[in-house]
Amino acid sequence: APKQRMSFSLSQGTRDYNPKQMAIRERVFNTIISCFKRHGAETIDTPVFELKETLTGKYGEDSKLIYDLKDQGGELLSLRYDLTVPFARYLAMNKITNIKRYHIAKVYRRDNPAMTRGRYREFYQCDFDIAGQYDGMIPDAECLKIVHEILSELDLGDFRIKVNDRRILDGMFAVCGVPDDKFRSICSTVDKLDKMPWEDVKKEMVNEKGLSEEVADRIGEYVSLQGGMDLAERLLQDHRMSQSKQVLPLARGLDYYTGIIYEAVLTQAGAVPAPAEAQKGAPAEESVSVGSVAGGGRYDGLVGMFDPKGRKVPCVGVSIGIERIFSIMEHKAEVSAEKVRTTEVQVMVASAQKNLLEEKLRLITELWDAGIKAEVMYKKNPKLLSQLQHCEESGIPLVAILGEQELKDGVVKLRVVATREEVDISRADLIAEIRKRTSEA
Amino acid sequence: APKQRMSFSLSQGTRDYNPKQMAIRERVFNTIISCFKRHGAETIDTPVFELKETLTGKYGEDSKLIYDLKDQGGELLSLRYDLTVPFARYLAMNKITNIKRYHIAKVYRRDNPAMTRGRYREFYQCDFDIAGQYDGMIPDAECLKIVHEILSELDLGDFRIKVNDRRILDGMFAVCGVPDDKFRSICSTVDKLDKMPWEDVKKEMVNEKGLSEEVADRIGEYVSLQGGMDLAERLLQDHRMSQSKQVLPLARGLDYYTGIIYEAVLTQAGAVPAPAEAQKGAPAEESVSVGSVAGGGRYDGLVGMFDPKGRKVPCVGVSIGIERIFSIMEHKAEVSAEKVRTTEVQVMVASAQKNLLEEKLRLITELWDAGIKAEVMYKKNPKLLSQLQHCEESGIPLVAILGEQELKDGVVKLRVVATREEVDISRADLIAEIRKRTSEA
User: Which segments constitute the Aminoacyl-transfer RNA synthetases class-II family profile domain (chains A, B) (predicted)?
Assistant: First the structure.
C-alpha cells in the first residue's frame, strides 16, 4: 500500500527528536540559556510565520529559500527565515530602542538538500542580541564573549572565532574594482568560500555575476589573507585600502550586516561527526566545509526598515547554530556509552502480590502530592520481575514495594535498584527517605 | 507610507510575547512540565510541518482549518493542527508500542477570527499521552488526575471536568435516529454547544446537516442532561439507551476519539478575562463560551491509520490549552500589581567615577566565570544615578560599585538596592557575599 507508506514519512529536511535526543537537547539548551541569563538577557517570542513582505528584501539572494504559505484567502505569509528580522520588526512595532534579549526557536529554509547535506530545513537558532545606542564596541565585545563562553562550556573541542567588518569588505571590493551595485551579490559569493574552493567561487563571480577575471583575481588576493593583529597591521599599510583593521575570508551572506561580522568554527574536524543524513551519501567534497557553529554581527539599519520614519536602532547579535552541536553531543554520548536518562523518576511503586492496584494508586498519589516523581505500571497485576526490569532499563533508582504484610505493618519495602538492598520504611518516613536517597544520587 | 506601515504588523491571529509575558509563560510551563515529569513522562519533538497527507482525513470538518504551505516544488506540506496526529505518525514510523510522553509546542489553525474571538491561529498545546495495551482504564484515569493536578496547582479558581464516552454518544445518535454516515458530522455540531445556544445548534443540524426536526429534538433532550453518578443511573434505566454510563453535553469535534472523552472548564466566569483581542469588539454572545482549558480522550485507531498493516496502538491523552491560562495569569499579575522580573540578574557592576570601564569589565568577567548573573552598562562613563535607576526598574538587588579608592584598597562597595545599605567587601569575598545575599532573597 504505497499511499499508506507515504503517509508515515517525514517531510524532507526535517526530523523528529526522540526522548534521548530531547534529553541531550535540554542539556545543551540549559547551558546556553544559563549563559544568556548570566549576561542579563530577557527573552521574547514571535510567531513562526510573518507577513511575507516583512521578510522581503532582507536576505539578498537567500530570499529564494523562504517558505511561503499557500494563499488560502487573506494575507500572504512566510515562515520565518531567521530570528533577527522578526526581532527588528518587534522592536519597530513596539517602539523599543533598548533591549538585551535572547530568543530560542525554530527557523525554516528551503535549502537544496543535494547541495547542503547535513543541513536541516527546520532548525533551531539561539539568538542573543543587544539593541541600543551605546559607546564604543562594548555590546559587540559582549556578543563575542558569549560565543566564547558557550563554546567553552559545551566542551566541543578547539574552535576559532573569525572576525571581519562589513566596511572592510566594502572597502576591499571598491579597491578591487567591483561596481557598487554588485557589492552585496559578490559578498554572497565570497561567503561560499567555506563550502567551495576558490576556483569555483571565482568561476561564479566571472560566469554568473559578470566580474572580469582581473577583478576576481584581485579579490582572490585579499580573501586568501588570514591572521590576527599582524594582518591588521599589514592591511593598514596597504595603500589600496583606505580603512581597515582585519580581513579574513569571511563574508556572511545576509544583506543586513553593517559593521562587525563574526563566525565561530570548530577546528578539530575529526571530532565533528557529520549528521546521520549527511553521512549516507555525502561525497568527499564535504570535507571542505568547516564546522560553523555560531555567527552574527552588527546590523544598524534593519530596524529602521520597519519604521515609517526610518528611525534607526543600532543592533548587534549572535546566533548559535545548535543542530551541529546536538550532533556532536549525541555522538559523544554514544561513544562514551553514557546512559542518558529520559525521565527523572525517583521511585517505582510496585507489588509482588496480586490485587493491590488500589493500594498502589493510593501510595503513588501520596508521593505525587509530595512532589516525588513516581511511576506505577498500568497493569492490574504486573509481575515483580517486569516491574524491576522497567526500573533497570529506565534508570529508576528506587522501588517502593507493597505487600499484604507491609500494609498490615504500616511499612513499605524500599529497594535500591543498583545494590538490591531492601529496607522496611514506615509509611510516615517514606517520603523523607526517598528524598534523602535520591538527592544523594 | 502605507507599504511601510503594513510591513511592521503581525499576521492575523498571531502574537508576540514580550519579556514580561515570557516570564509568566515560563512559570506556567514549569508547573505543567513538573507535573508531567512527576508522572514519569519522557518528551519528544516533531517538525512544525508534516506531509499534507499525514493530516488528511484525521480532523473531520475541521480539516478546512489546516494551513497548507505553498507548492514551491517538491512535497505538499501542512502546518501541524495538533500534536496528536504527529504523535501517532511518530509511533507508527518508529514502531513504538509503549510510551508515556509529553510534547509542548505550537499548533496552527485557520480559525475564522470573526467567529472565534480570543482564539489564536498560532497557539501552544501541552500534551501528555500514554500509548500501550494496558489494563482497565488506568492510563485514562492518570490523564484525568494530571488535569486535576495542573489546574489545582495553577490556582485558576473552580473548574469542572466534563466526562463522556464516544460510544455513549454514538449510542445516543443511534437511538435518536441519526443515520450512521452522519454521526461524525452531527458530533461536530453538538460540540458547538459550548459556543452557541441550543437553538442555533439545532438550526445547523436541520438546515445544514439535513436532520429532521424530530431527530434534532430527540438529541436536544439528551444533550440537555447533566450530572454525575445520578445521571449515569438514570441513563442506565433509559430503555432507549443500550449501554451507557454518563452523558454530558460534550462531544469534542475531532474525528479520532474512540472511547472516553473529557474537557475541563473554568466555572468562575468572572475570573476569566477575555484576551485583549477579544475584548475590543466582542459582542455579548461571547458569554455563552465557557473557559475550556483542557481536553482529550482515548483514540485507539489513530496509530493504525499510519501503519501499513493497520496494527493498532491504543492511546489516551490530554491537551492543556495554555493560551487562556496565560491570559488569566497575566490578568492576575496586573490586578495584584505584582512586579514580574524579566531577568534574574543578581548584581550590577557600577562605578561613580570616570574611566573605569576596563576595571568594571575585569570584575564582571570574574563574576560571570563564577556563575553570577551580572550586568554592566554599555556606556564608557555612565552616571551612578542612571546605573542605580536601572537596578530599581529591573529589580536587580545588588550593586557592586568600583572607585579609585576601592581599587587601591582591594575592595568593592556592595550596595543593597532596597535598603541603600553599603558595605565594603574584599575582592576575595565578593562572590561568596553576592551568593549569600541573593540566595536569601
Answer: 1-329
